[in-house]
Amino acid sequence: MARKKPTRRIEPSFDAPRARGGAGGLSVSEADRVVPSRGRKTRKASGSGGRSSKRRRSGRGKRRGFFGLLRKGVYWSFVLGLWAVIVVAGIVAYYGAKMPSATTWTVPDRPPNVRIVSVDGKLLANRGMTGGEAIGLHEMSPYIPQAVIAIEDRRFYSHFGVDPIGLARAMAENIMDGRITQGGSTLTQQLAKNLFLEPDRTIERKVQEVLMALWLEQEHTKDQILEMYLNRVYFGSGAYGVEAASRRYFGKSAREVTLSEAAVLAGLLKAPSRLSPARDPHAAEERAQLVLAAMREQGKITDKEMATAMSVRPIRAPSYWSGSENYVADRIMEQLPELIGEVRADITVETTVDLRLQQVAEKTIRNLIDENGKTLNVSQGALVSMDGTGAIRALVGGYDYAASQFDRASGARRQPGSAFKPFVFLAALEQGRTPQSIRNDAPIKIGKWTPQNYGGKYHGQVTLSEALAGSLNSVAAQLVMEAGPKNVVEVAHRMGIESKLNANASIALGTSEVTPLELTAAYVPLANGGYRPEPHLVRRITSESGKVLYEHEHQGMPRVVNSEIVGMMNAMMSRAIKEGTARKADFGWPAAGKTGTTQDSRDAWFVGYTAKLVTSVWFGNDSGKPTKGITGGGLPAIAWHDFMAAAHEGVPIANLPGNWTPVPQYDIRERRPSEPLVSSAAGGYDNAAGSSQAVPDTPRPRVEVGQTSSIRRPVPPGEVGGATVRRETSILDIILGN
Fold this sequence. Notes:
Layout: H1 48-97, E1 114-117, E2 123-127, H2 143-152, H3 164-177, H4 187-196, H5 203-219, H6 222-232, H7 242-250, H8 259-268, H9 281-297, H10 303-310, H11 325-340, E3 347-351, H12 355-376, E4 380-387, E5 392-396, H13 421-430, E6 438-441, E7 460-463, H14 464-469, H15 473-483, H16 485-495, H17 516-528, E8 538-543, E9 548-551, H18 563-578, E10 592-597, E11 603-609, E12 613-620, H19 635-647, H20 731-736
Parallel strand pairs: 1-3
Antiparallel strand pairs: 1-2, 3-8, 4-5, 4-12, 6-7, 8-9, 10-11, 11-12
């Protein structure tokens, strides 16, 4: 075989000139270089063809530059948007993963409301965290949801829980203002925040708010969401929900709210505290006008309706819940745990209070202090009225609940002064004395204590009836030592006094402190024939569905005073109104009572009763400073008269209980100033020193005119501690106090 001729490798040459006839060779000229060689200039094209080519290349470059920038802008915008979506999705996924599973989400129960009503079903107060009951969207004034939607979320019925348009608008407004002035949250988002989340301004909270808003929109209708929102949102001044707010600011139910009032409520949502009518009624009105304008713009109201609503003058709401009925509500809230335990759902508490009488009592106390407060240096008053079954018909704990929520009727212990004397005289009667028994009204000394009559006047020989009607301290001091301080304390506790009492001689003048409520209750047996009731404010408690959770049962009242003794006491105490220290209390009904005034007129009392009602009145100062000469026969008796006259209007007259008849008139020795009674050691007074141990608990042998039993064998408390007596009562009896 012939040997093949070896092939020669041809290397490309970039600089050597092309070989002739070397069409198949490979060569690259300088013109074909991408980058010109250093130090060499390319040859410029000459002639018209070169210039035309240059212009074409220039035009294409300009077009290519504009569209290129546009394409690049679109491209990078898409890239950035995609990354933004990825980042947002990552954040949502991260914070969403930290939340509980959506299958476990439930709308929490609304905080329970306690609705407190009067004996005839009228609202006294709402209590609880919300301060008002929940009402349906169909029940409330239609202006309320319209106003709220107009100013807070105009696309509420069209968005899916989040409003992108509203969010974009809010962002634009904030950018233009240079600060955050607009919020983009929908009503659904706000509800989600109120239901589930803390009010933190964080990305996590905002993400969770959006997720829960979307969930709410899936689980509930728009009307349900709006109803939940309106019943839970904060309207300022401690009011949550439209019912609480409308009663707080306008004194009416949300069912009765007008267009102008609805605009005020809707305007509060932006800044509940700053725009509150209780703080700045003019600011609240300006905001309300913006709400009205928004409602008109959206066609929810007419021009005429807007003009009428805007013409309403702003009114300052009370700075706090006002009205003396709130003293009643506060006391009931204290008692609820004992009656039904923890309140877990809405309830209605039916009370024994008569709202008309409550308002009369409040007006009476307030008017007398307004008229006499500065001249007599008195700033506070209290009133308690109770019927014969122990049902409290009115309770006023002070001059103004808005200024002070302390309940002086049930929480303040004060010296009752001579208003305590009936228990001293009752103890004496139970030991055998009668209203016709005679004592010497003269200066007396018991140990180092020398009680004196008011004004320093003494009347010599007087009956016990005259002594009680004239509130003679000398005779009361004698009786407490005869009956025994311990026995007096026992009688007072048996009648209904619950406070601790000091068994000493000065108890005759009411030096141990009691509350107006318990002093009123202790007078009730004298008004109902000798039976001690259980004082109460609550008749019945029911759930929202009507289930009875508690009902006060009249299980009978124990007899604590003999009926004959009741007759004696009523015969004596009625004289205090007819001819004694309480003549200003007389209003034409058979009534009895006792005045009380403490040292330096610090406390002034009158406690009186008819066969229908027992009412106590107190005037004084929280600080204990003396008044300018107020006595129980002054302001307290006047207040009692005004209240009782209104309470008994239209009620048939009834006599006081008791069957005691005095013996025929007898001669009493001529009254003349007597010499100071300073007893010898044998009498026991000098050595008593105010101690019950130094004086026998039984009276000294003495002939008593009209005594009902042997002078040497005191009369025991008849029927005390015996069988209880059940009193059948109807609703009419409860209302009238029968």
